[in-house]
Amino acid sequence: xxxxxxxxxxxxxxxxxxxxxxxxxxxxxxxxxxxxxxxxxxxxxxxxxxxxxxxxxxxxxxxxxxxxxxxxxxxxxxxxxxxxxxxxxxxxxxxxxxx
Length: 99
What we know:
7% of the residues are buried. The chain is globular. A hairpin with a 2-residue loop joins strand 2 and strand 3. By secondary structure, it is of the alpha+beta class. Strands 2-3-1-4 form a four-stranded antiparallel sheet.
């Protein structure tokens, strides 16, 4: 089953940190298996990432194999340990549009 993922970071997390992390990930050139959609930006005063994955297993594999190592490389293990956990939402996807 597909899942939605919302991660709301602290006020100190910004686009510079996000770009540093995604620079190690190369999401546009090498998108992870199972990722359907991802967006990021400021909403309600904090930086957030919203993503939809084919399954929780796809995200968990990406998180362990690519995301955590990239985060540690970009911002350090101590900063990663202080980041909030994501909120997961089960999703039944009927349709989506990518222009």
